[in-house]
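Report of the visiting student (M.T.), summer placement. My assignment was to run the structure pipeline on a short list of targets and document each run. The first record concerns Maltodextrin glucosidase.
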Amino acid sequence: MDLQNNYVFYHIYPLGFCNAEEINNFNSEPKPRITKILNWIEHLNTLGINALYLGPVFESTKHGYDTADYLKIDRRLGSNEDFKLVCDSLHEAGIQIFLDGVFNHVGRDFWAFKDVQINKQNSKFKDWFYIDFNRNSYDNDGFYYEGWEGHYDLVKLNLNNADVKNHIFSAISSWVTEFNIDGLRLDVAYSLDKNFIRELSAFCKKLKPNFFLIGEIIHGDYNSIVGKDLLDSATNYECYKGIYSSFNSENMFEIEYSLNRQFGNGGIYKDLPLYSFVENHDVVRLASVLTDPNHLKLAYGLLFTMPGIPSIYYGGEWGLKGDKSKGDSALRPALELDSLEDNDLTKFISSLVAIRKDSKALAFGNYKKEHLTNHQYVFSRELEDEKIIIAINIEKKPYVLNYKFPKEKAIDLLTKKEYVFDGSFILEPYSIYIFKM
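After the run finished, the structure tokens were exported:
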């Protein structure tokens, strides 16, 4: 069994989290803001987090995905030495480190692209990019270049170029050597050349056998980037959408359809440990997208009991709100731990993390639908001699569940209360039960 299935991720967008300037001043001295994470380690341990995914940390112009230098920590966050201190401290606390690998494109301030801007056809880096010297760019560079999906602040890299690949692989090697990172989340993995993905995977596994690679894919078949010789996991956007949409439309058939299609008997991703989430740095916060706040706990309960590797986006444990229509900064706030007080949701999520990490059935077990209506959803996770039954009622009124449980008695892992079943069971309003049979 893969150890990665036991991961519980916490996701931070560092530039926002650390309240960094919006635009980088490349002439300024590094500011050790990234060490702020040191103050959060106790909180992460209390939650039970064992894997921290950090968004872009390397030198960039604005938002981190416009890389200027793969070998330097963004000066708005600090120095390489500052980041090494953070990584060493996280490892000492039992937390593994995952970084954003942004390899499809770089920013206009990337050193090799700047050389092309200066030397044009004479630049030895001109083949690192997709450049046409017979046309001009929107910035009047004297040549045209391909940007990622029409975004010309993101200059597309030629990943078929051996020197480009060598530079990227050398950078990854330095991240492992210097910071001892444990894996990468590959930005826009759906845009990456498959041969590049294979070479990258082989290189990383040789560096560190348990190195874990997660690919960002929003639409399409996850098998296209995950599998033997490819990546280890992918972002499960189908179930991300299915979770909040099922609650908002009061139609649990939607998420059950996705979970059965993916992980049921004959499911197309049954053996893939997909990265599961209910919010991230690119989408509306869960507390803002749900129309009924009573569904917030239930959504997290579903996240931690469905197949997949669960992830919490920083602030989500307090029910933080954020609307993408107000700009990306609304989703990527600066947070101060001292100003945040644990609430029922925080404690509930901490309980879910403990339950998830303590159950092989929830980490590795088969998925099966047991009972389904628009407002009620019962499913099981089973592995060897462990069987977990999850029962959810999203209505504001009680529901009489006519379902024959496998045993006459069971413990609800959330409340530690024992229940006796006599052919029917009352699900309380807005409730979730995690029965260990």
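The radius of gyration is 23 Å. The chain has twelve helices and 23 strands. I thank the supervising group for their guidance throughout the placement.
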